[in-house]
Amino acid sequence: MSFIRRTKNGCSNDVTFYGIPVYQTYSAGFRQSILGSKLDKKSWINDNVNEKKYISDITSLLIDWELYENGWLVNPNKNKHLFYYRCQIGLSTRPEQLDYIN
Question: Comparing C-alpha atoms, which of 34, 17, 25, 26 is closest to residue 69?
Fold first, then answer.
């Protein structure tokens, strides 16, 4: 069984990404089923990127992110930059790719 928890930032506030709650896998907490059905992340990217030439940049930024009806599920493995930035971990700077999202 998979468990998840709400992701918190350095101030213990809930993390969101474009108004959508962010969750991460965890050893205990909520059942992953609370996220609802998995959505098409590619469609979200296509709908929210302001210039289509940046789709591959945003896809790379969100490689570890899965979109569901009730939130994003992140398992930071391949690209931790956005996750670390949103959670205020270390000295992570704002990813420039965020400029390409509406």
Answer: 34
Q: Which tokens in the block code for residue 96?
A: 């420039």
Its pTM stands at: 0.93
1 has pLDDT over 80: no
Name residue 38's beta-bridge partners: 68
Cα–Cα distance measured from residue 84 to residue 54, given in angstroms and rounded to the nearest whole number: 21
Pairwise CA distance, residues 50 & 99, whole Å: 9
Neighbouring residues of 43: CB distance < 8 A, sequence distance ≥ 6: none
CA dist 33 and 56 (Å) reads: 29
Q: Where are the domains of the chain?
A: 3-100
